[in-house]
Amino acid sequence: MRHGRRTVAVLMECLRQRALQRGTPLPLVTRKLQDTIAAKREAGARQAAVLVPFADVDGEPAVVFSVRSATVSTHKSQVSFPGGHLEQGETPEAAALREAAEEFGDGFRAGFEPVA
Fold this sequence. Notes:
two-stranded antiparallel ribbon; alpha+beta; 16% strand; 6 strands
């Protein structure tokens, strides 16, 4: 029996509810790594953000990745989530969505709903 659509919907609702309870997007890393990131940020490191897109593919839940170009300066031809550095005054959410549009094209937003 296929439960893909329901599974994705349940996962999205769980993420949405947890983010609402926290009042912030959900951290997907350990506290130790969060502390390391904070220290690097305080030392002047650039911030970056990624989008973790979930999709319904033939009724089954799926996570969508992109493949980086072989011509970029770093991480050539690697499989990754869409994302990149934040621009001046940009939120992580806006950066992740901007980068996803750059990598997938503007049409990726059709039927798309940010969760957290």
